[in-house]
Amino acid sequence: MFNFTVQDVIDILYRIPCVLIALILHEVAHGWVAYKLGDPTARNLGRLTLNPLKHLNPIGTLCMIFFRFGWANPVPVNMRYFKKPRRDMAIVALAGPVTNMILAVIGGLLYATFFKFFLSNDIVTYSYYIGNTAALPPATFWISLKVALVEMSLTFMFLNISLAVFNLIPINPLDGSRILHLLLPAKAYYWLMQHERYIMIGLMVLLWTGIITKPLSAVVMWVANGIIDIITLIPFFG
User: What is the longest distance spanned by two Cα atoms in the chain?
Assistant: First the structure.
């Protein structure tokens, strides 16, 4: 059913640590901001931790690794602790995607730095022939390590953008729905919350069939190109 190449396996290995960092810090950001706004629920449940077992959703993590769009177990938030529930809930919701965008910029800066210092003729040759083991020239450990750093930093940037973009979709239970709460009448919002499970099932079907991945990937690519374009304006990288 699946026809994985050597490069596909390498790409998946690159994604795993990037996905863990992106998902964990996304959820910790939600919990930390909620705590700062007066809600101790996440802290009391041990969600202000970097322990992946506290955050990762098996299906969401696999979707993130294989389809580049996914989710973690949502941090529980009790709006009754907030002084301004709708506003504060939107701020908590934004904390995750904003954190991922900050991480994406860091990934972009690392990519630009590694690209600048490591992209020698040897690495160009190595990258050109990668995936074609018959033509692959002998690569030293250091060349392989440099290529890995360049590709992993780029993967880190793209996955964080993907997580931010995906979570800003304005449907329950994604972060975008909490932001939408500020704009929708209460009755309409509560109707969406009541049907949250069915909406999420529909979203998963769209992911598995690939219907939603193309437009999301286009947005991710547009954001990534924007980050790289801005970074190249810095004299050091120009």
Answer: 65
Which residue do the tokens 């939408």 mark?
A: 180
Q: Cα-Cα-Cα-Cα dihedral of 25, 155, 107, 225, to 10°?
A: -120
Tokens of 235: 């004299």
**Contact (Cβ atoms closer than 8 angstroms) between residue 131 and residue 6:** yes
What separation, in Å, do the N-terminal and C-terminal C-alpha atoms of the chain show?
A: 45
User: Model-level pTM?
Assistant: 0.85
For residue 170, what are its two tokens?
Answer: 């304005």
Residue 23: which residues within 8 A CB-CB, separation 6 or more?
52, 55, 56, 60, 61, 64, 70, 71, 72, 163
pLDDT digits (tens, 9 = 90+) for 169-212: 887 778 887 787 777 666 766 666 666 666 777 777 777 777 77
Q: What is the pLDDT of residue 133?
A: 46
Q: Which of 27, 39, 88, 175 is catalytic?
A: 27
The pLDDT averaged over each successive group of 10 residues in the chain (238 residues) is 69 91 96 96 95 91 85 90 91 96 97 81 54 52 77 94 92 79 69 68 73 87 95 87
Q: Residue 196 catalytic?
A: no
Confidence at residue 164, expressed as pLDDT on a 0 to 100 scale: 96
Burial class (CB in 10 A: 0-12, 13-18, 19+), 81: middle
